[in-house]
Design brief:
With 353 residues, this protein is α+β, with helices and mostly antiparallel strands. It has six helices and 23 strands. The protein has three domains: 39 residues; 200 residues, Jelly Rolls (Sandwich); 74 residues, Phage tail protein beta-alpha-beta fold, CATH 3.55.50. It holds the Pfam family FecR.
Length: 353
C-alpha cells in the first residue's frame, strides 16, 4: 500500500543536476495532468455531440414517418407541370383536358364517376375502397377552376395551382394537398376532420370556409378564415419541439414565414381574399409590385417594373379581371394618377417604366 512520506526535502543540499531532473519531473507531471484533462473534455464534448446527433436522427426519422400517404404521393409527382389547359389526372395516369366552358368538376360519393361540366361523365376504376386512389387537378396560369370532391367539399382553385386529393375519402380523416391558392368550403363531418396539407404546414377543419395561398415562389403561406374554426399545424425553428399549432377565428389572416418558420396573425377584411373567385381583385393600400405579381399569375405574363420607387407605390380599388390586361393597366394608371408607361412584348413580358 502506498503511504504518504512525511520526510521533507532539503532543497539547499540538492545539486544542480538533481534540480534539473526534479524540474523535468514536475514539468512532465503537469503536462500529463493537462493531457488527461483535455482528453476528458474531448470525451464530454463527443458524448454531447453524439446525443445531439442521435436526437436529430430520431427527430428526422419520426418526422419522415409522420408524413401522410398523400404527402408521400405529392413528393413522388412534384415534377408535374401546369400546361396551357386545365388538366385532371385520374387513377392510372389518365389525363383529361378540361375545357374553359366546363365550369365545374364534380365527383360521385364513391369517386368512381366524375362529371365535367354538364355534358361529360368519366368513370375510373376503384377496386378497393381501403386503398387510396389519388387524383390531381392542375390549373395553369391564366385559368381558374371549381371542383366538388366526393364528400361534397367545394374547392375553387386559382391560377397556377395544383390540388391532390383522394377520389374517395376512405379513412377516418379527409386529406388534400395544395400548391398555389384555393378557397375551401368544407362539408361538415365531425367524425372525419378535413386537412389541407402543404410543405411544413397543414390546416385542420371540421366544416368552414377559408382561403390558403401557398405558391412556391412566395416566402410565406397565408391562411384567411371566413367562417368556422381552423387549427394550423406548422414546423418551427426549435431544436427540441419541431411542431406547433395555433387556432384562428373568423376574420383572421395567419402568415407562416417559410424561412424563419414563424407564424404571425392579424385581423383583416376577408372579402379581398375571396373576391377572385368571382373574377374581381380587391386591393387596399397594396404595393404595385404585389398587385403585379397577382396579375402575372392570372394573365400568365412575366411582369417587370424597372422603377423601384414606382414598385412601392400603393393602390386601393377593384380590378375586374374578366377584362383584358390593357384595360386593367388603364384602370391602374388612372387610379394612380400616374403617367408611367408599359409595353407587352411578343414573348409575354409586360415591362413597366
Amino acid at each position: 500500500m502506498y503511504q504518504k512520506s512525511n520526510k521533507k526535502i532539503n532543497f539547499e543540499n540538492i545539486s544542480e543536476d538533481e534540480k534539473l531532473i526534479l524540474g523535468n519531473r514536475i514539468k512532465h507531471s503537469i503536462q500529463s495532468y493537462k493531457s488527461r484533462k483535455q482528453k476528458y473534455t474531448y470525451y464530454l464534448l463527443f458524448a454531447a455531440a453524439s446525443v445531439v446527433l442521435i436526437f436529430s436522427v430520431v427527430t428526422y426519422s419520426s418526422l419522415n414517418e409522420n408524413h401522410s400517404t398523400i404527402e408521400k404521393f405529392a413528393e413522388s409527382v412534384k415534377n408535374q407541370k401546369n400546361k396551357n389547359e386545365v388538366e385532371l389526372i385520374l387513377n392510372g395516369d389518365k389525363n383529361i383536358k378540361v375545357k374553359e366552358s366546363d365550369s365545374i368538376i364534380s365527383y360521385s360519393y364513391l369517386g368512381k364517376k366524375v362529371s365535367i361540366g354538364a355534358s361529360e361523365t368519366i368513370e375510373q376504376e376503384i377496386t378497393n375502397k381501403n386503398e387510396i386512389t389519388f387524383n390531381t387537378l392542375l390549373v395553369p396560369y391564366g385559368k381558374r377552376k371549381e371542383i366538388i370532391l366526393s364528400d361534397g367539399t367545394k374547392v375553387w382553385l386559382n391560377s397556377g395551382s395544383k390540388l391532390i386529393f383522394p377520389a374517395y375519402f376512405s379513412e377516418n380523416k379527409r386529406e388534400v394537398y395544395l400548391e398555389g391558392e384555393a378557397i375551401f368550403e368544407v362539408a361538415h363531418n365531425a367524425e372525419k376532420p378535413f386537412f389541407v396539407k402543404a410543405s411544413q404546414y397543414n390546416v385542420e377543419v371540421l366544416g368552414t370556409v377559408f382561403n390558403i395561398s401557398n405558391y412556391k415562389d412566395d416566402n410565406a403561406i397565408r391562411t384567411v378564415l371566413k367562417s368556422g374554426s381552423v387549427k394550423i399545424n406548422y414546423e418551427n425553428s426549435s431544436l427540441f419541439s419541431r411542431t406547433e399549432n395555433i387556432k384562428i377565428a373568423p376574420g383572421t389572416l395567419a402568415v407562416y414565414h417559410k424561412n424563419d418558420k414563424e407564424i404571425t396573425t392579424e385581423e383583416v377584411h376577408v372579402d379581398k381574399y375571396f373576391s377572385w373567385r368571382e373574377g374581381v381583385f380587391i386591393f387596399k393600400n397594396d404595393s404595385l409590385a404585389s398587385i403585379m405579381k397577382k396579375l402575372s399569375r392570372y394573365y400568365d405574363l412575366e411582369i417587370i417594373i424597372n422603377d423601384k420607387n414606382l414598385a412601392k407605390h400603393t393602390f386601393s380599388g377593384y380590378l375586374d379581371v374578366k377584362e383584358n390586361i390593357n384595360q386593367i393597366m388603364t384602370t391602374i394608371i388612372t387610379a394612380e394618377n400616374s403617367s408611367f408607361k408599359y409595353e407587352i412584348t411578343t414573348d409575354r413580358k409586360l415591362i413597366i417604366n
